[in-house]
Amino acid sequence: MSGETAPVLVVGGGLVGLSAALFLAARGVRPLLVERRPASSPHPRAIGYTARTVELLRSVGLESAIPTGGASTAVRRARVESLAGTWFEEQPWSPPSAAPEVEHSPCGPAGIAQDRLEPLLRDRAVALGADVRLSTELVSFEQDDAGVSAVLRAADGGEYEVRAEHLVAADGHRSPVREALGVHRTGRGHLATVRSVLFRAPLEEYLRGGVGQFAIDQPGLSAFLTTYGDGRWVLMFEDDVDRDEKTLRDLVARAIGRSDVAVELITTGRWELAAAVADTYSVGRAHLAGDAAHTLPPNRGGYGANVGIEDAHNLAWKLAAVLAGESTPGLLDTYDAERRPVAELCHRQLFARPERYNPEPTRDVPLIDDRAMVFGQLYRSAAVLDAGPDLPPALRPEQWAGQPGTRAPHLWLSRDGARPSTLDLFGRGWVLLSDNDDWADAAKAASPALDHRRVDVDGFRTAFGLHDGGATLVRPDGYIAWRSPDLPADPANALTSALRQVSFATARPSVSLPGR
């Protein structure tokens, strides 16, 4: 059995696995990704991506390829007799917010089918140096203190061994890697098994009002209909019944409310709706991400694919820092500490709202604003200073005002005639922000790789919670690790101490990783 080596072995070539490979490759790590299927699934599956996800894709050069749809954070749904029939009422995911509209991001949410997005992620990851192998299956793996040994099987049946320093399991909700690790899950568990039919039809006229999801409610037919924005639609039934083509055509016509529309049936599907979160995201050098770590049913909060892509982003910069020798392995412990509470929060929010799989919502869970869930989730870990247990799990960015443990706020900047965002300053390494030059020498003393940026823009101090002479330290993932609201007596000492703590810095000098 021939042997190969890779810094990171990613198992699973769906959205999350490809995102992990892409984010690693963008940081100079050349991962090996294996996917047992020869191509993307014939089912479009996920369709809605939050503005935060688009921000992450923008950071690796993909924003121009992603069709965005404005500033809204939530998909709109209506209960209808049929598309052409009576529309009863709109069903909001969250109650209307009285909070004023604030521009939280340079990006808008995106609507692109998963089978269209996956090739974009794959091509970009390969272009940046990732080794992506389709029709390649993980047979087994073992790990020790120094790494992971995996046996892979190629399409021709031949097996070979790969030695990697870390393994990322993005192998789905049934995750053989998670099962092999013995990791249990907690949550509502299995909710339902349902069937669907994917079809193509010219129904764009029913999307002009901005509603993209439809709860079909008529005698003898209770179903869910949604568009993929490219002429394809999926009709999901609320049972596990195998239907023949004639029956499917009849039900599609009833959901549309017309029989004069040309309908092409593409394929059918059988889906398990479940909700569960892994009890831990890491065991040794193996790390769970996406559905392997949390199974969250599809909803207008976008908690499935979006949360998984954010998992991959969080884990990637930490793996890159440890592999480069910049950080001790203790940094990887913060992956579970930061990302698992997010999935648990999403799980609670799911069942606090009425859905077709949840007719009786949990009444004692406060509903969190959609903008807070997208842009304002709080991380509490050793990679963040001063994010105490008394703080709420999520708030809107203007409410956080630069709280450590939250995503650094978006503000428009002005540079050489361009209009970048503060978010464009992040993503390559550690960044120190201030509106003065008092911290420039302190940044150089703390680390030669620390990038000090002076921000002269109205609203900077308010957005980041700073006073005269203050500064904010932002991590490579765009999250605030520490801040000094005022200028301390010894800025260099304060910054150096904070940076060493939150970056898990090794004794060796910092090394700058290649940027995007």
From TrEMBL:
Keywords: FAD, Flavoprotein, Membrane, Monooxygenase, Oxidoreductase, Transmembrane, Transmembrane helix
Chain ranges passing through the membrane: 6-26
Domain FAD-binding: residue ranges: 6-345
Cofactor: FAD
InterPro entries listed in its UniProt record: FAD-bd, FAD/NAD-bd_sf, RIFMO-like
Top-rank lineage group of the source organism: Bacteria
A molecular-function term among this protein's GO annotations: oxidoreductase activity, acting on paired donors, with incorporation or reduction of molecular oxygen, NAD(P)H as one donor, and incorporation of one atom of oxygen
Keyword Transmembrane appears in the UniProt entry: yes
Protein name: FAD-dependent monooxygenase
